[in-house]
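Final report, Chapter 2: Outcomes

The project's central promise was a pipeline that accepts a single protein chain and returns its three-dimensional structure in a standardized token representation, suitable for archiving and comparison. That pipeline is now operational. To close this chapter, we reproduce one record exactly as it appears in the project archive, with the input sequence first and the structure output second.
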Amino acid sequence: MTQLIHPNSPLAQTRRTGGVRTARSRRPLSDADQSVLRQVLEGKYEYTASEVFELPPDEAQRVVFEEPEPIPQPDTSWYHPVMDNLSPDRTLKNAGSVLLSAKQERVLFRQYNYCRLRVCELKSTLKTQPEIDTDLARQLLEWHRKAELYRDQIARINLALVLAMAKRTRLNEMDFADMISEGNMALLRAIDKFDAERGFKFSTYACRAILKAFSRAGIKFTKHRKMFPAEFDPKLERSDYMQTKRADHEDDCVSELADIIRSNRADLSDVEVAVVKHRFALQRDAEGQETKTLTLEQVGRIIGVTKERVRQIQNKALDKIRLTLEDDFLA
């Protein structure tokens, strides 16, 4: 006989604060079970009808769960939703997917919908009670978990459909991972809505549902882009630390070079100083602005030698400066 909780008991207080109302039993429901139970009771729960479900409960359950042949479990270790291309030995044809016959598919969907039928029946019964019978609540949770397991099995068997449809209808505006996410949600909705009793294959129904989901997502994404236009800037995707550090290092080197030229610590001749200043723009004009870098030929015209001779003078001066920098570093 079901016992009701006292209005002043802790369970009744839990009910008033939003908890699941459960009748007193030897082993009360855990917090996790109460959360799942609350979601099932408050949410929308449907099933697809079948002629087998009209049989007496015991006979219907026996017919539904006596499998003529075992249904293999799918291998989804190949599934990488963010990868555009699978390796040649892991294509969609040999990626470990399970191909079910029409009979196996009908059996699997019938088992899934029968579990959902039992959840709907128990849900209707519990909603009419002033207090929830814990035993009935556990039965509801058990059938709900079975339904989720069957749904997960069907989804894993048909994961390859999402990748196949995503590769067929590539939307340049959308990211590939976003398309896969939309396709997976469409696949789950298709599992809930599919009626296997009509004799069609699930892949026919699911592929159309996935393609429609891609189309809706593309339209939504396009509208969003029109409302909030923004161009992609690769510079915002990476740090400028290395560029800043390199620029600071170059500034330090230029300052050190200018100091060496100014103090002539490298014992450069007047011609070498002139060549280095013109070649690396180390001098300023009458207005105090930095001059432009001159070519070898332009420097040669100024000092009256060939550009090849300017190159030799420049290299000799740079060798002296390099030795001076090394001596300063080792000092």
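Archive annotation: The radius of gyration is 38 Å.
This record, like all others produced under the grant, will remain available to the consortium after the project formally closes.
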